[in-house]
Amino acid sequence: MNASYRGSLDTQNDDLILVLDFGSQTAQLIARRVREHNVFCQLARHNLQVDRIRELQPKGLILSGGPAGVYEENAPYPDNEIFDLGIPILGICYGMQVACRAMVSKVIPSQSREFGRTSCRSIAKNNLLDGLPSELTVWMSHGDQVENLSQHFEVLAETETCRCAAVKHRKKPIYGLQFHPEVTHTEFGGTILDNYVKKICGCRGTWDIGSLIEREIESIRQRVGKSRVICGLSGGVDSSVVAALLFRAIGSQLSCIFVDNGLLRENEREQVTEQFQNHFKTDLHVVDARDRFLDELAGVIEPQEKRSRIGRVFIEVFQKEAESIPDAHFLAQGTLYPDVIESGANPDGPAATIKTHHNVGGLPDELQFELIEPLRDLFKDEVRQMGLELGLPEKSIWRHPFPGPGLAVRCLGEVRTERLQSLRQADSIFIEELQQANLYREVQQAFCVLLPVFSVGVMGDRRTYEETIALRAVATEDFMTADWYPFTADFLRRVSTRIINEVQGVNRIVYDISSKPPSTIEWE
Ligand code: XMP
Known about the structure:
Shape: globular
Number of helices: 14
Bound molecules: xanthosine-5'-monophosphate
Number of strands: 18
């Protein structure tokens, strides 16, 4: 398995920064921000042993924030020897308190919990704050803070209520920030992280997607040899990038399988065929399993039952097709870095977070293939960048995510051909209008839902009794929380008029104004 901690980078000379994760909401964000400065960065458990850290040879250690207080029972602590390694350490918020406490400073519960933007003044010169104005706005989110800084530290910056907003150990390369440089509300946060990784840790900034592609290609070729690799295409960005990368690496040794389950968006099958058969000229197997799925879904209205039937049939259909391809030893999958972190699959990584996974459309582990997961080290935005560099069109790179069970979970009630047809058409009108209005990338996911709710209407002189379409559009960073999007009345009017005029069987449009939580993004 291609799952070693540094992935394919084990043998490379890229500099590494490790973020020791103390449970912060923003730990992944720190890693992404560091990578924006062309330095490879990964998350690790907060208490990763010093021996393992020595083996990995990071150029710097960032101690993340976290929800605990340093004096709480069972507060997470790093291996204390990290402070003697000589590797530059940057503690952020809780991470700073951990570092300062280890160096005998006192941390106290603050009188006033500080949360939000605040003004910060720098009071001493230091590489960490190079290129910053003497006064800047920073983002704070803490209860405790460091007081009685031991004489080992000097203060670099302060705010009205926090005397130790930025500190540095006088002899050791240990730095602390009470505020969060990784969030965009902190002005010059990027400069601070860049100063830390380049000026303090000495990273060269050699990591980029272009060179990563070259190295991945080399490593895929070595692993695969003359065997054949199967790649399941879903129409989504992750599997498309995996397929494009593999095609670049091994060309005709790649076979792609695309299952048409009859639950796809408008033109989805045509787009996949256009890209992977006409443009990339891969050995593309399009399996038309529409009837199989529809038969299986006949009469089913319960959402989880729909999901489980679709999942089962998908595996059967995929497996049958895969078995018909000779010499296939490998299966390529678009697993991303957040999946690796969140599943707790990495022995050095942070513990698994509790999260419901939507695993429909996935394949069972017992399939007799070796896995190739070339995106295991990447965040979603990096995957998009890779896709663009590999020549995938912007349109597919920025396409909104689509659930594995497809339109079945957006067609509430029974899934039937004519209802799917109405839903698909309404959805495509909504998306077209979003694109026209330049709003498609303002929202991260938008779609129509067909409700089995009949209401009375009039069209011309005719009375109608037809179903309802709900429009759903959300702004979200991570799909775990989401806000409904505030469209203008004009925009909603245009979409509504078009759908009612053009789509059979629909005479009423409603707009979903619920956020997640407590609602979910999908309706089923
Ligand atoms: P919810 O509805 O849980 O959705 O707020 C969060 C994100 O997950 C997607 N989603 C799914 N993806 N199989 C998938 O592959 C599923 O069964 C599934 N259900 C929801 C949803 O589209 C959104 O992006």
